[in-house]
Amino acid sequence: MLELSQDFEEIERVREEYEKYRIRSKGGVNLSLTHRCTWRCVFCYKGCPRSGPEMTADDLRSLAPKLFDDNLSFSLTGGEPTLHEAWRSIAAYAAGRGRKIGMITNASRISDEDIDFIAKTLLSIKLSIHALTPQTAYEMTKSKEQRGLEVLRKLSQKVDGCFKISVTTLILRPNMPEIIPLLEEFERIHDETGKPDRIGLSVPYLTGSMLQNLDLYPSPEEWENLKREIESQGFNLNIDFEKYGVNYNRALPPFSSCFELEPDGYGYFEGLNIKVGSWRKHSPKELLLFWYRKGYQIVYEALKRGEILRELPDFKVKKRVQRWLRVKAKDYFETESGCVVVLEDGRLFEFEGRGYFALMLAQLYPLEKLQDAYGESFRTLIDQLIGGGIAEIYEVETLFDVEVVD
Could you tell me the pTM of the whole model? Predict the structure, then answer.
């Protein structure tokens, strides 16, 4: 039986690594459409398939614009997202707004027609492929519906280099003997098409269905031996090995940066099943800000007290108004030493040196931050841009911080 770690020195070490990691990652969002699934995986961290609500048309009409307005990248997931009748409509809606999205799928219900649609409409796909033979696939997923390798081959032949295909393969004792042959099959497809772009290998999260199947879980020694064997093969593949301890011990802070919006109206942090907050009350961006600013620290402090949290307290957001510079440009052209701006009124201005530098920075950062960094000389340049009718200042209300509500 695997137990929660009581080694708080190890937990502190991982927490420190996570503290560094979270600064580099703002997190992605998964839009969980349904908990229905064609598989019944022995390792599913959500325990799917299971009964419960699904995303309704009203839910999707409410959430989708918020995700776009917050400028968040997101993927469709489940359960199995292709069982939800709206998955194609959401993908088409996103593409129509110039924002292609991703999908996480086991591919069991993806038809040849769907493959054409996915290649044209989505930005990326993550395929769950855990075995090479039908027998082992069934032992892992309790399903005979297996189309992952077939979809991978056909989709890889249709997409261009910008479309990202990744594969997730979770490691348990039943499929360990097939991992090398499975990677060899991935390599054959990659040699022909240049896809997949990434193979992710890891042990499952210790939650959900996995807790009833712990006898299938590999030991750290088994994981390391397999990893060394894979590395010795020199595969022509981009293979990422997740750290064993991160998923092995559910008491540790998560390294995964994925946040899931579920049909029950709440956002959860993937793998830990921690209810972070309501997406009906807060925007997805506010939920992410709360998790990265306060949430994970609350989880960690509870862990030190010997508690495993399943729900975080409510919170309120703090906002502030920031001033930005908008150049009244209809078009611009780069030159060897700067750029030429074509204004909306037809005038042309050439920017070089400090003027070009100020113009570029002002598109990336709020004015207050730049004035603090560059002082009076920067303010003078900005005043000249505004005074010449080249630019104008506009204000944006932005999220600043979060505060726990008692």
Answer: 0.81
